[in-house]
Amino acid sequence: MEELELLKLADKAKENAYAPYSGFQVGAALLTADGEIFTGCNVENSSYGAAICGERSAVVQAVSHGKREFAAIAIASSGDDTVYPCGICRQVLHEFNPDMKVICQSPKGYEVYRLSELMPKGF
Ligand code: THU
Fold first, then answer.
1. Can you give the pTM of this predicted structure?
2. CA within 20 to 30 Å of 43's CA: 24, 33, 54, 56, which one?
């Protein structure tokens, strides 16, 4: 699976975002070690703190389907800047694979990191 292909799936997944409060739509596409893909989007709530990010929504999808080994995640948003995973999502991803690739949509296309770069010395 190409990085760009995964990013396109993330970009498509953001169309389902429920983000009436922030207006910031996020989509994520998670690639499992055995080549499956699970997507997610952010889902907000009138009780703002109950919102779930696109990245965690994809993780919940994958784990709910019995998948726990992740190779990469791509993240896309409706914003103009590069989209990086928030701290809570970094922690949740770290649980499953600190070395997974993180593909972040950017104005010029995308940036690629290892999760361990974005979250050094994680728990
Ligand atoms: N959000 C994500 O889904 N992923 C990120 O990486 C950053 C933030 C969501 C949470 C909230 O619904 C909205 O974007 C604004 O913060």
1. 0.97
2. 33
